[in-house]
Design a protein that fits this description.
This protein has 512 residues and is α/β, with parallel strands linked by helices. It folds into two domains: 251 residues, Alkaline Phosphatase, subunit A; 232 residues, 2,3-Bisphosphoglycerate-independent phosphoglycerate mutase, substrate-binding domain (3-Layer(aba) Sandwich), CATH 3.40.1450.10. It is 34% helix and 16% strand. It has an eight-stranded mixed beta sheet, with helices on both faces. Strands 6-7-5-4-3-8-9-10 form an eight-stranded mixed beta sheet, sandwiched between helices. Helix 6 packs parallel to helix 7, helix 7 packs antiparallel against helix 10 and helix 14 runs parallel beside helix 16. The longest helix has 24 residues. The protein is globular, with a radius of gyration of 23 Å. Keywords: Glycolysis, Isomerase, Manganese, Metal-binding.
């Protein structure tokens, strides 16, 4: 059999396969191209959440996890699982990076700042890890005012409005331990931007360093005031918590220590660069820019982030990208800004550099406040660039359409339907071009999102789902097996390209 070229892996980010039709933008959208491929070609569904992708049972998948598993061709046990396991087994409190940060503060008389996403969403962080850090601080004899929490509020990976409960739980823990105070609260929209919208990051920074922005003497009161203005968790303005005398509870100053307790890198990089890069140029940090900080990241974020790493990465050998390079095949990775790290670094098992024979194409995401304002995003630009590149003779293409996920997070059903319809139009253009060249497309997703835009309560749903994802192979005359997972996609690509599957790649081809 002639080897198809190219083999194009088209990832429809956030495009889950859910039977319930109510509030299901994937179902409600007019998507003639996808429907035609589903009906014409062999298809199945894949599990994209929980233990099948290295997460705890019942935990929804996400883009980082999905692309890691897809590219690695094996179940990759995630940092959430790894850190939580270390807590259960008692290793967390012996982590030298944490202990050194605490010792630094005790020796120098400086403050320890804990910041990250305060929720149990499990996508970027988990509140249980913060609680364990507070227990560790108590055991190590830290004072109440010496430990300061800067709470980034979620409302995206969990239901909007739940921040009040997380903050209440956090305050209760601090009162029980006699250690820690909340110094700032702010929506992840500001502190966790990943698209170089530095004006957002600057607001977060200036609240934590200069005490600038709205203020309140009580974190919960600040939240309630924001809710009354119809500004929910994700978008809460960086707010400074102050003492009764009007002074800030605690700002980040010279020689302080910071532990960034998010485990997922992509939305933790920018804020970390602000505090760890001497040559930072994103914005003017001002004359009070803290010097000589002791900075700890929970996991390895990026080569562009300094400091110490609590949980160092384990290497992933023989990912799909590496196998293609070993066989001297040309590969293309293409996405818009929001998902570019996913088709590059995450897909390559955390490797940031290109493989030999790999080309990367980045299409800029639109500069809008939220993507329901422009649900088309840059999908057409991605499709146009991909169609043009197909003529250059690539053997493998990894392409991501971001719309169903990014617009799904806004909670707007109408916008999510438009997002899916946009993706369908662009999907048709890419698939037809690939087929015209004698290639094969694998059409799938990394996790669900737009398939559930309305909760059973009638409220908007902004989170991912645990639903399976579709998997289509545009080649007639083959049979696909049931029960597949994301880790089975790379072995399927390897089989289509008639390559030897390395032993590290423990997934199984979905093509029988």
């Amino acid at each position: 059999m002639t080897r198809p070229a190219p083999v194009a892996l088209i990832i429809l980010d956030g495009f889950g396969w859910r039977k319930e039709t109510k509030g299901n933008a994937v179902h409600l959208a007019n998507k003639p191209n996808f429907d035609r491929y589903w009906n014409q070609y062999p298809h199945t569904t894949l599990t994209a959440s929980g233990e099948a992708v290295g997460l705890p049972e019942g935990q929804m998948g996400n883009s980082e996890v999905g692309h890691l598993n897809i590219g690695a061709g094996r179940v990759v046990y995630q940092d959430l699982t790894r850190v939580s396991k270390s807590i259960r087994e008692g290793e967390f409190k012996h982590n030298q990076a944490f202990l050194n940060a605490i010792e630094h503060c005790k020796t120098t008389g400086t403050k320890l700042h804990l910041y990250g996403l305060v929720s149990d969403g499990g996508v970027h962080s988990h509140i249980s890890h913060l609680m364990e850090l507070l227990d560790l601080c108590k055991e190590q004899g830290m004072g109440q005012d010496q430990v300061l929490v800067h709470a980034f509020l979620d409302g995206r990976d969990v239901i909007p409005g739940t921040a009040r409960q997380y903050i209440a739980d956090l305050q209760k823990k601090m009162q029980q331990n006699g250690v820690g105070r909340i110094a700032t609260v702010q929506g992840r929209y500001y502190a966790m931007d990943r698209d170089k919208r530095w004006e957002r990051t600057e607001k977060a920074y200036r609240a934590m360093v200069y005490g600038e922005g709205p203020s309140s003497t009580d974190p919960l009161a600040a939240l309630e005031e924001s809710y009354r203005a119809s500004v929910t968790d994700e978008f809460v303005l960086p707010t400074v918590i102050k003492n009764e005398d009007g002074s800030p509870v605690g700002l980040i100053t010279d020689r302080d220590a910071i532990i960034m307790f998010n485990f997922r890198p992509d939305r933790a990089i920018q804020i970390s660069q602000v505090f760890t890069n001497k040559d930072f140029r994103g914005f003017d940090r001002g004359e009070k820019c803290p010097q000589d900080l002791y900075y700890v990241t929970l996991t390895k974020f990026s080569e562009t982030v300094g400091g110490f790493v609590a949980y160092k990465p384990s290497s992933l050998d023989n990912t799909l990208g590496e196998v293609l390079t070993q066989n001297k095949l040309k590969q293309l990775r293409i996405a818009e800004t929001e998902k570019f790290p996913h088709v590059t670094s995450f897909f390559s098992g955390g490797r940031e550099d290109e493989f030999e024979g790999e080309e990367r194409v980045l299409i800029q995401s639109p500069k809008v406040a939220t993507y329901d304002l422009q649900p088309e995003m840059s999908a057409q630009g991605v499709a146009d660039a991909c169609v043009a590149k197909i003529d250059e003779g690539f053997d493998f293409i990894c392409l991501n359409f971001a719309n169903a996920d990014m617009v799904g997070h806004t909670g707007s059903l109408e916008a999510a339907v438009k997002a899916v319809e946009t993706v369908d139009t662009c999907l048709g253009q890419v698939v037809e071009k690939v087929l015209s060249k004698g290639g094969v497309c694998l059409i799938t997703a990394d996790h669900g999102n737009a398939d559930m835009m309305i909760l059973p309560t009638g409220e908007a749903c902004t989170t991912h789902t645990t639903e399976p994802v579709p998997f289509i192979v545009t080649q007639e005359g083959i049979t696909l097996r049931e029960g597949g997972i994301l880790a089975d996609i790379a072995p399927t690509v390897v089989k289509l390209l008639q390559l030897a599957q390395p032993e590290e790649m423990t997934g199984k081809s979905i093509i029988l």
